[in-house]
Amino acid sequence: MTQEVRMVKRVTLTDVARLAGLSPSAASMILNGRPDTRLSRDAHDRVLAAAAELGYRPNVAARALRTSTSHTIGFVSDLVATTRFASGLIKGALGAAEAAGHVVLVAETGGEPEREAEAVSALLDRQVDGVIFASMRAREILVPPIPSSVRAVMLNATSETHVCSVLPDEETGGQRAIELLRDAGIHDDILLLGYDADAERDLFRSATVAARVRGIYDTMAREGMSFSREESIWLWEPDHGHDVTARVLASGPPPRAIVCLNDRLAFGASQALGEAGLRVPDDVALVSFDNDELAAYLRPGLTTIGLPHEAMGRRAVELLLAPDGPPPGEHLVEMPVVIRASLP
Amino acid sequence: MTQEVRMVKRVTLTDVARLAGLSPSAASMILNGRPDTRLSRDAHDRVLAAAAELGYRPNVAARALRTSTSHTIGFVSDLVATTRFASGLIKGALGAAEAAGHVVLVAETGGEPEREAEAVSALLDRQVDGVIFASMRAREILVPPIPSSVRAVMLNATSETHVCSVLPDEETGGQRAIELLRDAGIHDDILLLGYDADAERDLFRSATVAARVRGIYDTMAREGMSFSREESIWLWEPDHGHDVTARVLASGPPPRAIVCLNDRLAFGASQALGEAGLRVPDDVALVSFDNDELAAYLRPGLTTIGLPHEAMGRRAVELLLAPDGPPPGEHLVEMPVVIRASLP
DNA sequence: CTGTTAGCGCCTTCAT
DNA sequence: ATGAAGGCGCTAACAG
C-alpha cells in the first residue's frame, strides 16, 4: 500500500494532469467520464493511472462552487433521540447514500419552525443536492420554502408543498395482523386496544394510524370476524396498556386475543396478563404493531407488524437521487410481519 | 417578512457590497468581524443593513475553497441503528454543533475498516473542520490516519493515535449504585449479576465495564458490604438475566437485592422474580446500569445509573471546537443516578 | 482608512 | 483530439 497520509498538501487535479502529461481539463473530462468528448485510449489510461498513483480525490468544495452540487444530501428530522425509530430511518438513509457516493448532513429541529428554517438554510448554504424531511410520527408537516432547484422528499410524513413522500403501508399492515389471528383460528372474542377516534384527529398523532385501523376493520369484516370489546387509549404507553388491560380482566372473563395498536401497549398488556396469572399465547394471544425493540425482549416474544424504518430511509434517498428527480406520489413501504411466540 | 424565496439566484457578497456602495472585500471584512482593519462605523452599518435586507448567506463551498474550513464536523460511528445509545450521542453532538453554528455529517461504518477509511475520506473531501469517532460500546478503536491539521476526538472510545476522548465516568457510576444500596439499608445478601472476567478481556465488550466493576467492588469494600453471590453472564440480554436469576431463585432463598450490570439483565431478572412470586422492591431490590428505555417501562420502574450519552455527544463537539483544539486526555462525563421504584 | 487584485480547485466553453 | 481561458464566491494580501 502506498496509501500514506499527505499532510503537506492535497493532491489536485493539476497534479494528476501534470503526471499524465495532459492539461487539467483533459484530466477532468476523463475522470468524470464525459462520454461525448473522446480522448485517446492512451490518455485515458495515463490519467487513471496517475490519479490512482497519487491517490487523487476531487475537492468537493471546489466542485460544489463550480457545479453547485456537492454529493451531499440533507436529512432534517423533528426528533432524533426521543424515538428509536429515528435511527432506523437515518441508518437506511445513510446506507443508500453511501451506496450512491453521497454523504448525509443530519439536522434536528425538535419540530420548531425557526430551528427548521435555520437548519434548511444551513444545508442550502452547503449546496446539498436534496433534502429529506423526516418526521418521527407520520404526519403532515410544514416545510420551509426551498428553491425549486433543490430536490425534496418527505419521509414518514406528507406535505402540501412537496409531493414525494415515503410512508409505511399501514393498511396492508393492519390486514396482516388480522390474517395472523385468522390463521391461528381465532375469529372472535378479541379485544382491540388503543384505537381512539378523537386522538386520531390530533395532528401530533401519526396520520397513518387511520390506515392501520382501516386495514384492521376491513379485514375483520371481510373475514367475518369481530371484536368483542374495544378500549380506546389516548397515550400509547406501557402504563396505560397495563391499566386498561387489568381493568378489562377484572371485569369478566379474559378475551381470547388482544390486538394492540403498538408494542408499548402490548408490553403493558402482557404485564397485566402475567399478574392475572394468564399465559401468552395459550390463554390469551397477542398481536401488535411497530416491532419495537421491546417486542423481542418480552417473554414470550411478541408477534408484531413492524414499521420498516430502515427500508423507508433507504427508499427516501433512492427516490431523492432518482435520475429525473423524486417521482411524485405516496410511496408505500411494506410492513414486515415479525413472527414470534405470542400467537398460537 | 420580506423572507421570500429567491430561486433565481442566491444573493452573493458582491450584491451586498454593491448595495452598500462598497467593495466585496470591505463587505467581507465587516461581515466576518475582522477587528484589526477598522472600517468606518457608517460602512459597517451600511453593509449589515444591506446583508439583512437581501437576506445574504455566505456560500459555504466558496468559503471552504478559500479558507479550507467548512463549519461542518464529521461524526463517524460504527453503528447507528443497532443500539439506541447511538442516537443519544448523535443528538448531543447535533445540539452542540448547532449552538456553535456548525452542521454535522454523519457516517456509519459498521466497524469495517474499509468503510471507515472511505467515510473519513469522504468527510475530508468536504473539508470538515474536525471529526468525531464514536463507538457504541466504549472501547479502543483504530482510526484511519488523518492529516494532523484535522481535529479529532474519540467519543465513547479511546485510540492510541488520537488522545482526546470522552467517556462515561463508570467508576463513580459503580460507586453510586452501591451507595444507593447502602442508603436503602441493604448491606449484605446481595447478588451481582453479569460480571464476567473473561468477557471483560473481549475487545468487543465495552472497555469501561472494568471501571464500572472496580467502582462497585471498591465501594462495597469501603462500606463493609459484600456480595453473597456473583453470577457471571457473557451476553447481557434479557433472556440470560431471566434464566440465571431463575436458577438462583430455585437453588435457595432469594437475595435481598440484585445488582445487574445492565438494564437488559435487570429486565430479565425482574421477570424471573415475578414468576417466582417475589415482589420488587419489598422482597428483592434491584439496581442496574444504563437507563435504557426499558428501565422506565418496567413495573415498578427500575432505579439505574444512566449512561449520559447526550451529554457525552455534546461534550465531544465542545472539545472538538475548543479554541486551541481538543485538549488531550480522557474526559469523563458523570453518570446520572435515575431513581425509580426498584429500591426501597 | 478604503479598494483592488489575485487565486483557492474545479469544470465548461471555446479555439485550436 | 486536445489545450487555454474564464469564472463559480469568497477572502487575504496588497496598493492607494
**Widest sheet of chain A: strand order?**
2-1-3-4-5-11
Largest interface: A-B, 59 and 58 residues
> Helices and strands of chain A: which structural class?
alpha/beta
Distance between the termini of chain A: 57 Å
Number of helices of chain A: 13
List keywords for this structure.
344 residues, DNA-binding, alpha/beta, 13 helices, homodimer, disordered N terminus, six-stranded parallel beta sheet
Structure description:
With about 350 residues, chain A is an alpha/beta fold. In chain A, about 40% of the residues lie in helices and about 20% in strands. Chain A has helices spanning about 15-20, 25-30, 40-55, 60-65, 85-100, 115-125, 170-185, 195-200, 210-220, 240-250, 265-275, 295, 310-320; strands at about 70-75, 105-110, 130-140, 150-160, 165-170, 190-195, 225-230, 255-260, 285-290, 305, 330-335, 335-340. Chain A has a six-stranded parallel β-sheet with strand order 2-1-3-4-5-11, sandwiched between helices. In chain A, strands 7-6-8-9-10-12 form a six-stranded mixed β-sheet, with helices on both faces. In chain A, strand 1 (about 70-75), helix 5 and strand 2 (about 105-110) form a beta-alpha-beta unit. In chain A, helix 7 runs parallel beside helix 9. The longest helix of chain A is centred in the first third of the chain and has 16 residues, at about 85-100. Chain A is elongated, with a radius of gyration of 26 Å. Chains A and B meet through helix 4, helix 5, strand 2, helix 6 and helix 10 of A and helix 4, helix 5, strand 2, helix 6 and helix 10 of B. Strand 2 (about 105-110) of chain A pairs antiparallel with strand 2 of chain B, so a sheet runs across the interface. Chain A binds a DNA duplex (16 and 16 nucleotides) through helix 2 and helix 4.
